[in-house]
Specification:
2 copies of one chain form a homodimer. Chain A is mostly helical and 757 residues long. Chain A has helices spanning 33-37, 54-61, 74-82, 85-133, 137-162, 171-179, 189-204, 212-228, 247-266, 269-280, 286-308, 336-368, 373-393, 433-438, 442-449, 459-476, 486-504, 513-529, 533-543, 549-566, 570-577, 596-599, 613-622, 648-656, 676-684, 697-701, 723-733, 753-756; strands spanning 315-316, 332-333, 401-402, 430-431, 607-608, 610-612, 627-632, 641-647, 703-705, 717-718, 738-741, 747-751. In chain A, helix 27 links the parallel strand 10 (717-718) and strand 11. At the A-B interface, helix 3, helix 10, helix 11, strand 1 and strand 2 of A face helix 3, helix 10, helix 11, strand 1 and strand 2 of B. Chains A, B: The chain crosses the membrane at residues 97-117, 141-161, 196-216, 253-273, 292-312, 337-357, 378-398, 462-482, 484-504, 506-526, 535-555.
């Protein structure tokens, strides 16, 4: 409901704000102290007062909310009387079936992505290594660069074709949708397909992007798609999924999908559930925990099952897109906890630094490059060229080392493949340190960084690696290619962690720098996205051991605290940049002394219970409000007593199907041809546009009875409410419209997301 | 607000139900179909229609709710205007400090309990084994029995002294409190102390009880105590903790405390967080996740640190009250998943069976033994005798086995102490199988059951052990001693799991029965308490490995489904037995076609905004309602227009301090001596009883202005609401009173927990 965009039409509708002035208002007992210094526009509501430009503000104002409340009208109530226990069971059972399919599909997608990436990277390194092994530096580089550029070009092209929603990780959009913000087409089929293809190509291209963020978006999109199972383009609306075709059930499936995407990507089902609880979801229930867990397990199991195949080995082991065989025998000392705290501090600082630079870079991009596909394509290609050059030529800075330098400790039962290093242009029996980290898959680099073998790397290459990966992570995030931040951040963290571990091992004995790498990764992740439990669990699930729980937890905590001192998580900032009015679970303290009557939209357009079609059409045409309180004029005829609320879309459907009132007096007449099923089916589609409905004179003179179709259980508040309490009510109940009534039950205002944000 | 217990006094207050009869009611359009077949008493609301006896119903009706909403009155608003950012920061910082202390204290309690139990059990077995090694069966048994009886006697005595709230696990009470039910003294100092002592003694006595459930209760009690930091008996109310002294903040600390108790008991911080999210807490927020996690880590770390000591070994490893060195090398095959499903099925069946028998046994206890301490004490001693006899003499059923039969596989790097068996009365070099399981600590028995060594036990002793432990778990739960169910259930599960594993290993090769024991434990736990993610995480944290995630998850899921088919979780049933009106997150389907006007209490007692003391005292004396809507009589004087709501306790404080109205007309006069601090301090204490206030005639003729003290942001609903939507609003917002208004904003009803349950 836009704020006072239009004057109401109906003659019954008048500004009655002054009408109740003789009634005691608990805010105004001391003159007009409050009424002056809070104007409606000065509501700053974020924990940190971000300054939004007028354009950004306007953009946010235009964003609509999703409709999480049940439309509890007469039809619904009649339907309830008919529904048996069997139907409820059927609906619940159907949800489990959808979850099963969701898990299997997301698992398969994760498998396909992993396989195709493996294939593409294999091809790239196959051709490049052909020249490398022949010692042809120039040719090798050109091949490397050429293939990378091709991948980035195609990846960026996919984004241009499928729209910018296919780029980046998509987590801010998912978070916004789960908070109740309508982000158009974010979970559409085009964005889904574009993201999958773009992700495969960008991840193969050697850019510093990871697959996890996009997998979360992909999971959410699959969840939205499979639960709705309709197509507006194809006009395909099967009735089987009708009962799930509302924003509320859709939200639950999107929550599940997001968790599932992460679970499949990391092979971490518990981590997935916690990610959904802690980070993306705004509404949660116990039932959802259980269903999400089920779906995550199915997805992780599917990926795992496909990766191993059933024929080759009957043993099973759970692996995800990224798993490390981490050693389990070493224990650390109490005194080392101080070092882990230090790693947490570094992680928090670097994380906050990352967020700062990334956000400013994205702002610059938004201003300079805008949505221009040529500039965006050029930028992506440019980043790719620089990345390729640096990754290729950085290896030449340092001398080659002898493979025989690496001594594997006997106490470690480690996967030996981790220690295979990259020879690059080194003589036989020697290896290139930076080449082993930069010239290959990120997975392999991470495995090497997490390796137990302490003397694998020297300090300078680790430092250079950390700086390079930090720099390119910042630069690559926000390009018009699909890509997440988890893996790049883990690389940065593992880099500085191992660097630190090896540094202090010069003074102290028995330091295992692999733990430091692990802890560094966790700290870095906590530093940029400010999650806690979720990161700890993911790290535990990745490394398959709980021995390092205490150091990881310590580092994550400190990192989060340090990061929070400087700025908010990268998702919060990105949501703001993308004009997604996200409502935090609590309003900021600065709103404590605002009253709801200061911020509510005062010129509410209301509809009478029985309304002439002519009037209705005029009212609908004259504004763009999405909901209208339905009023009863009461015994004194100039009143507008609140009775219920009805959505514009529902009125449009009623008008389109000519559900006119044929009764008399106060009796309610229900159209036989327009029962609950019909109403639900039609309102779940996109509503017909008003302009295409042509009413003849007779129809315009008819009446529509809104009472059977309005929501009689809509939450309202009195105008004595404080902002804070109204916010909590709005946020906790997931409302879209919150009518404000006065002492006489007359509608005096309307609160929507835009008034609260 | 009890339902229509008294007739209202005020002359303005009349039954105005018929007044709005000419106004359209969306429920009544088809005659009086609805109005007849829903009477107020027929609301059955549980998923399964439990039949409550009239006495039980009456008991539940008398139970009050906690007050989670902010009392947003004029004083509060004035206070907000004064509060600076620094004060908010101070409050947040204070919460972290409280969490830190909470973690340390709970960790220390867990350590003390573990140490004392170790000492007591050590003494017991020291004296018993003295006779055992001399071959004196009779003397050994009498010593064993005598010490067990002494422990049980003292443990039961503690419960008799401290009240029945110190018995059992206390999880239902904590769950109820977190849902908003006022369970008197459940978290009091007496219950806390009684529970700690009783737990130590009962756990040492060889009864089939575990320490985890009580630890959760202890954690919650510590959380409540430390955050409130007051004593009503000692009249000690420091102002430092004033801002946390409300039900809302207390609830959060209790949630954290419950998680922390579990985390300290199991050494499983993530499991603790998930337990709080999944099982006990009804209200959760993202901030809470983070704070709970911090506290859990602190507690687990404290216990761990104390157990290991800093001097002896500089290495650290995380262990809780119960940890197993589980082997990590073995992988299972896909075909075995079927077996794990079967274990899930068994776990679900046994779990449901356990719940069924336990509930009926408790019902029998409640009817026959009542609260009679002698009977209760006798019962506990009787169970102890039978347990001691069975645990002691069962070992003689089976022949001794040669210690040399146990072959430790070389591939396993296991803690060798696990395989040390109990010799009991066997010749040297031999051991008693049942003695190793029943004659010793539960921890040791569990360790042996989870041991990798396959040929440690034969099938018949395992079967007998499973049956014995199932039988005694059922019998012991509900005795008047403190004790939980986690460990006994794990033992049952491990028993049948290992039994099953060893049985099928007769036909198939390479079966590791230790995995089966682990999976069996998980299945059994899921079968009786119906948790999912939490159990999986606890098992992972206990065994320190994620390799067996898939089997555990599979078994837990199937077990939960199977169990849910038969009955609800043991906590749901116990809450009902304890007359705790717990509100599930969703109302049951059977309430779909009830309207809120059918169930609301119709004879609401209202108060005018400015009220004569005489009238007020009369009204307060004439009923036991806890809140009163404050009304304005409007321009037509016989109306009762809703303006706000005020609690009885707050009125009592106002009366006690003679905060009388001295103004005139509509102007509001605030008493200078009764500001926000004073109001908060006084209302956070127990209110003075009305009977002790003696008013003189002048005072009785005075007026009280309720407007500055009433809650102006109280949520209300219209009488057109459906039961389901009102329930959701009430439950999600954690309300205590929900006034119902009609089309004229007149108060026509009141909804409280008792109307919804």
């Amino acid at each position: 409901m836009g704020s006072s965009l239009n004057k109401p039409l109906s003659d019954r509708v008048e500004d009655i704000n002054n009408q109740s002035s003789m009634i005691y208002d608990p805010w105004r007992h001391r003159g007009d102290v409050n009424s002056t210094y809070h104007s409606s526009s000065s509501v700053t509501h974020r924990r940190r007062n971000h300054r939004l430009s007028p354009l950004e503000k306007q953009k946010m104002k235009n964003i609509q909310s999703l409709n999480f409340s049940v439309n509890d009208n007469l039809l619904q109530r009649e339907e309830y009387e008919k529904t048996t226990k069997g139907l409820h069971l059927k609906k619940t059972f159907g949800k489990w079936i959808i979850c099963l399919f969701l898990g299997v599909i997301v698992g398969c997608i994760a498998y396909v992505i992993k396989m195709v990436v493996q294939l593409l990277q294999g091809l790239k390194f196959h051709y490049t290594n052909h020249y490398v092994s022949n010692g042809l530096q120039g040719e090798a580089f050109l091949t490397f660069l050429g293939i990378n550029l091709l991948f980035v070009f195609l990846s960026c092209l996919m984004v241009i074709v499928a729209g910018p929603l296919a780029s980046s990780s998509g987590i801010p959009e998912v978070k916004g949708i789960l908070n109740g913000v309508k982000v158009r087409e974010a979970l559409g089929f085009r964005a889904l397909l574009g993201k999958i293809v773009s992700l495969v190509l960008s991840f193969s291209s050697g850019l510093f992007v990871g697959p996890e963020g996009p997998m979360i978006h992909i999971g959410s999109a699959v969840g939205a798609a499979i639960s709705q199972f309709k197509s507006s383009t194809m006009g395909f609306y099967p009735s089987l999924f009708l009962s799930y075709r509302n924003d509320r059930d859709k939200r639950d499936f999107i929550s599940i999908g997001a968790a599932t995407g992460l679970a499949a990507a990391f092979g971490a089902p518990i981590g997935g559930v916690l990610f959904s609880i802690e980070e993306v979801s705004s509404f949660w229930s116990r039932q959802l925990t259980w269903r999400t867990f089920f779906t995550c397990v199915i997805a992780a199991f599917t990926t795992n099952f496909l990766l191993q195949g059933i024929g080759s080995s009957p043993d099973m082991h759970d692996t995800g897109l990224l798993t490390f065989g981490f050693s389990r025998l070493y224990l650390f000392r109490y005194s080392e906890l101080l070092c882990f705290c230090f790693l947490g501090l570094i992680g928090g600082l670097l994380g906050a630094f990352f967020v700062f630079l990334n956000i400013h870079l994205n702002k610059w991009r938004k201003e300079k490059l805008k949505q221009n596909p040529y500039l965006r394509l050029f930028e992506a290609l440019f980043v790719s060229v620089v990345t390729s050059v640096v990754c290729y030529y950085a290896s030449f800075i340092f001398d080659c080392r002898y493979q025989s330098n690496i001594v594997i400790e006997t106490s470690v039962c480690e996967d030996q493949s981790n220690t295979e290093m990259v020879q690059f242009f080194c003589p036989d029996g020697m290896y290139s340190e930076l080449g082993s980290l930069l010239f290959g898959n990120p997975d392999q680099a991470l495995r090497r960084l997490y390796s137990r073998t302490n003397n694998m790397f020297t300090l300078p290459p680790l430092l250079v690696f950390t700086l390079i990966s930090l720099f390119f992570s910042i630069w690559s995030s926000g390009l018009w290619v699909a890509g997440g931040l988890f893996v790049p951040m883990m690389m940065v963290g593992a880099g500085f962690g191992r660097l630190f571990g090896q540094t202090i091992s010069m003074w102290f004995t028995n330091i295992d720098s692999s733990i430091y790498a692990l802890v560094g990764s966790a700290a870095m992740m906590a530093g940029y996205c400010r999650m806690t439990v979720c990161i700890v669990v993911i790290m535990v699930e990745l490394t398959e051991g709980t021995q390092y729980l205490v150091p990881i937890i310590l580092a994550v905590m400190i990192s989060k605290w340090v990061g929070d001192f400087f700025n908010e998580s990268v998702y919060e900032h990105l949501m703001e940049q993308k004009s997604i009015p996200f409502l935090q679970s609590k309003p900021p303290h600065s709103t404590n002394n605002i009253r709801i009557s200061d911020v509510m939209s005062k010129n509410v357009v209301v509809l009478p219970e029985v309304c002439q079609v002519r009037l209705l059409v005029n009212i609908l045409n004259s504004n763009n409000h999405n909901a209208f309180p339905v009023i009863n004029s009461g015994p004194y005829d100039n009143q507008r007593l609140y009775r219920g609320i009805i959505l514009r879309d529902h009125i449009l459907v009623l008008l389109f199907y000519r559900v006119f009132y044929r009764g008399t007096g106060e009796e309610i007449y229900l159209d036989e041809n327009f029962d609950f099923d019909k109403f639900t089916t039609e309102t779940s589609k996109s509503p017909p546009p008003l302009s295409e409905m042509n009413f003849d004179q007779f129809e315009l003179d008819s009446f529509i009875d809104l009472r059977p179709y309005m929501n009689s259980s809509g939450v309202t508040i009195h105008n004595t409410f404080s902002f804070v309490e109204a916010y909590k009510l709005f946020r906790n109940m997931g409302l879209r419209h919150l009518p404000v009534i006065d002492i006489n039950n007359e509608v005096v205002g309307m609160v929507t997301r835009n008034d609260l944000f």
